[in-house]
Design goal:
This protein is of the alpha/beta class and about 500 residues long. It has two domains: about 10-170 and about 180-335, Rossmann fold, CATH 3.40.50.12780; about 430-490, GMP Synthetase, Chain A, domain 3, CATH 3.30.300.30. Helix content is about 30%, strand content about 25%. It is built from 15 helices and 26 strands. It has an eight-stranded mixed beta sheet. The protein has a seven-stranded mixed beta sheet with strand order 9-8-5-3-4-10-11, with helices on both faces. Pfam families: AMP-binding. GO terms for molecular function: medium-chain fatty acid-CoA ligase activity.
């Protein structure tokens, strides 16, 4: 009897490399990890990582988490994040990724919307107690049964996952490895509001393939991932790219320029994946001398409308690949030519790599009737973005939509026929990757007091920056905290705009 073809999962890809080279280096922590989390940096082989994954997976099973239930993760860009995601998948769980800059209200809403059974976090990140944030959010989420953390001085009632990794693995659970099963839930902000976006394994792998094939990442490469992993793009550009190339994943918790350069040279990294504006600041004429091991640079654009106006890349020894990000809807990449300028992106199906005839179709780009950019393809979760049913009593079924409208204004360039992305979605702001509705600014400004001003100004590095004015700056920051903003987010506002 013929067995049906089953697409691989992330854990399948990991175990393939594990069987081939168990003692090869798999994971490298940030060099400044002790400052960020209080943990010493770790260097793990595939066999060592597999042992830790087995122990964490067994703990999730023994804790009574049912297969296909949701486990929420709010962790920095360290090996604990990678180990937890793979352990959850090995236990048959679905991972919901929670950005570090989220405020308490969003954290609670995400846990309730996904009916998460457990949450995993770090005791502290950059001096902020994420263990306390998780405990407070879990108290307001009826579905949460387990709160787990890495690090020391965890609150009472929070299980220590460091202790779990230190003991032998326990109970395993037989899980069917099928790439069509749900793998992750990320969260987007659209004009309609807060939106959970579920994805299967094959969708994540498709995103990783679109990047790795377009950038021509070699097998066995050492990949430096310096992009926050709490999104589809973050997981695809770090976890998926690493597992597809079967090499080493070096992690950097954004951002310290000197530490990043030190890591790249110490680990002889072949590939750098980072926010595009940040990567471009590294790409001067001395890049070959400063970081001679680099062979590929992948820049992820949170504001894809800025790509066409970006500066030329002048480091020919490490070609630059632009990756256009559209929230959690999807992405596509385009490697720059010899002149270092962005290449035209044509509508229609696009392969990976883009210019190679006969390459596999990574997705399709189209213009919608509203003059916005639409995406379709294996990585695009069309059902998650389905428009609400029309109001009325009509019994005629509406035709299904087979693409996602990203909301980004776009047009066709008449001479070349290329797609030109001209503006971000209306009514949505982004500060350092944190997306929110522009209407939220009015509520935040109201809490600052009479005569206060808070506005979002365009910023090439972070999309927007918050600028404000208040008679009492200390009271202004206190008011933002009272509103439920994560303390790191308050600091981010202050750092980008001066005192709020």
């Amino acid at each position: 009897m013929n067995q049906p073809a089953v697409s691989p999962t992330l854990d399948t890809l990991f175990q393939r490399t594990l069987m081939r080279q168990p003692h090869a280096t798999a994971l490298l922590d940030p060099l400044n990890k002790f400052r960020v989390t209080g943990h010493e940096p770790r260097r793990m082989s595939y066999a060592e990582a597999d042992t830790a994954i087995e122990a964490l997976s067994a703990y999730f099973v023994e804790s009574g988490l049912p297969a296909n239930s949701v486990i929420a993760i709010q962790l920095p860009n360290t090996v604990e994040f990678v180990l937890t995601v793979l352990a959850a998948h090995r236990a048959g769980l679905v991972v919901a990724v929670l950005p570090l800059l989220w405020r308490h209200a969003e954290l609670t809403a995400a846990l309730n919307r996904t009916a998460a059974r457990a949450i995993v976090t770090m005791s502290t990140v950059d001096g902020v107690s994420y263990a306390d944030l998780a405990m407070h959010a879990a108290a307001e989420a009826f579905s949460i049964r387990h709160v787990c953390g890495f690090g020391t001085n965890l609150p009472e009632g929070m299980a220590s996952l460091d202790d779990v990794q230190a003991r032998p693995p326990g109970t395993a659970r037989a899980v069917i490895q099928d790439g069509r099963k749900a793998a992750m839930i990320s969260f987007d902000v659209t004009a309609e509001g807060f939106r959970p976006v579920p994805r299967p394994h094959f969708s994540l792998i498709a995103g990783g393939l679109a990047m790795s094939l377009e950038a021509d990442i070699r097998q066995g490469a050492t990949v430096m991932a310096a992009f926050t992993p709490m999104s589809f793009a973050g997981l695809a550009s770090s976890l998926a790219v690493w597992l597809l190339c079967g090499g080493t994943l070096a992690l950097h918790h954004p951002f310290e320029n000197d530490v990043l350069e030190q890591q790249i040279n110490a680990h002889e990294c072949d590939v750098l994946i980072a926010p595009a504006q940040f990567a471009q600041r590294l790409g001067d004429s001395e890049l070959a001398a400063r970081m001679p091991s680099l062979r590929n640079v992948i820049g992820l654009w949170r504001a894809p409308e800025q790509v066409s106006a970006s500066e030329a890349w002048i480091a020919p020894h490490a070609p630059f690949t632009d990756v256009y990000l559209f929230g959690e809807a999807g992405l596509f990449g385009a490697r720059r030519g010899e002149d270092g300028m962005p290449v035209p992106v044509m509508p229609g199906p696009h392969g990976a790599p883009r210019e190679q005839s006969g390459s596999s179709i990574a997705g399709e780009i189209l213009l919608t009737p509203k003059g916005t950019l639409g995406l379709r393809g294996p990585m695009v979760p069309i059902a998650a973005y389905a428009p609400p049913p029309p109001v009325g009593d009509s019994l005629i079924a509406q035709p299904p939509r087979d693409y996602v409208d990203t909301g980004y204004a776009a047009r066709l360039d008449r001479p070349s026929g290329a797609i030109c992305i001209t503006a971000p979605p209306s009514g949505i702001m982004a500060v350092g990757g944190y997306r929110f509705l522009s209407n939220d600014l009015q509520e935040w400004a109201r809490r600052l007091g009479q005569g206060a001003l808070l506005t979002a100004l365009p910023d090439r590095l972070s999309g927007h920056r918050l600028a404000g004015r208040a008679q009492d700056n200390a009271r202004a920051r206190e008011a933002l905290s009272e509103l439920g903003l994560n303390p790191l987010m308050v600091e981010a506002f202050r750092d980008r705009s001066g005192p709020v």
